[in-house]
């Protein structure tokens, strides 16, 4: 599914983020940037050992929840990896939506700062961190839409959803944002 916001494209695809031919891909990391499973494990495996070396050298103190830091893409097709730290879902009353929104927003700022024309996101926080997919889709897509309408870049924001359930949840929310 693809939608235009101003002159920018927002796309939803089902697939593997490590294979995306974009300027930057976003990792769903933890605050110690220590690596892990899920999309984090897949990205580190595909990027090679230099990614962890670079991350620990540049960011020895990790990254707070709700923010993101940039490294090169190692052996990935993408030039950069933005390591975003989403919140753990604790029922929805612990600031989770603000933290998820600010992690996404920081990645879009990093894309502009690094002159990236295209960026791909996974469904941050919706795996091990337990954020309900439909609620995460609502937060994530609204942040992307508002940023594109306000800044007019990056040219392409793609959400890469690993499974059909996530893809469906993101499609249903995006339908509601068209023309709203
Ligand atoms: N491409 C795109 N999406 C993927 C891929 C992939 N190759 N692999 C998994 N996903 P998760 P979180 C989806 O658990 O909830 C890690 O251990 C997955 O199906 O990776 O933010 C970190 O180190 C799900 O929809 O991230 C942290 O400790 C989504 O990516 C913690 O997990 C996010 O699931 C972060 O948890």
Shape: globular
* Low-pLDDT ranges: none
What percentage of amino acids are in beta strands? 15-25%
* Secondary-structure element pattern, one letter each: EEEHHEEHEHEH
Q: Which ions, cofactors or small ligands are bound in this entry?
A: ligand AR6
The helix count comes to: 5
* Helix-and-strand structural type: alpha/beta
Tell me the number of strands: 7
Percent of residues in helices: 25-40%
Main sheet strand line-up: 1-2-7-6-3-5-4
Note the main sheet.
Answer: 7 strands, mixed
Using only C-alpha atoms, the radius of gyration works out to 15 Å
Q: Between the first and last Cα atoms, what is the distance in angstroms?
A: 17 Å
Average pLDDT metric: 97
Structure, explained:
The mean pLDDT is 97. Helix content is 39%, strand content 21%. The protein has a seven-stranded mixed sheet, with helices on both faces. It has helices at residues 38-47, 50-58, 96-113, 133-151, 164-177; strands spanning 2-5, 8-14, 24-29, 68-72, 80-85, 118-121, 156-161. The chain is of the alpha/beta class. The two termini are 17 Å apart. Ligand AR6 binds at residues 16-18, 28-30, 36-40, 42, 86, 122-129, 160, 162-163, 166. Ligand AR6 binds next to strand 3 and helix 1.
